[in-house]
Amino acid sequence: MFYADELPEPDRIYQGDIFKEQIIITIPPDLKLLRLDDDERYVLYALDELENAFKGNSSEALVANAVQTNVIVLSNTCDIDHREFVSIAPLFPLDIISNTDVQRSIKERKINYMFFLPSSGECPDSYADLNLINSVKKEILNLDNRTSSLSEYAQRWLQDTLYRYFCRPVYMKEVEYFKFDEGKSDTPDKS
Question: Is the separation of the CB atoms in 64 and 27 below 8 Å?
Fold first, then answer.
């Protein structure tokens, strides 16, 4: 089973929780800063136009790209309990990729920065894009917006994907990976 039927503690955020309608931000290559001028009007500046941008650990208002989409929680459950920020990745419907060979590669876990999620309820087959990981304040993740949670087995599959993405084992053929089998419970198949 890929998704959990119920959670041990429903009021807790878990690694592998899926939340709807969250904001994912990416910084464009032509970064612009937003500042108030002397007349209290907002003015856009290119980063190289300002000598004092980000000096002395100051924060700046940026103009960024954003998309509202479903997300999956990547942070470890035990870390979420004790930290202010949570790592999330956006989810996209698999069918936005027109190339069926690429779709198959995502399903077969051959693209290390994409995590495949089979359809569930109203959500179609999807994938998490690990290249677009964001950190958000934990309070932003409203439990009323949680649509589903991964089972323990699927959480291990997610952890394995994160390991492959961040650690890139040198001898990948020697590493045993979890393979998802819909007919099995929470016991990993390492064949």
Answer: yes
Bridge partner list, 105: none
- For residue 182, what pLDDT is reported? 54
For residue 70, what are the CA distances in angstroms to 18, 34, 49?
A: 7, 28, 36
In tens, the pLDDT along 67-81 reads: 999 999 999 999 999
The letter for the amino acid at 124 is: P
Please report the DSSP string for 57-101 in residue order.
G---EEE-EEEEEEEEE-S-HHHHTT-SEEEEEEEEEGGG---HH
SS3 175: coil
Quick one: tokens of 133? 């990981």
Contact 95, 127 (CB under 8 A): no
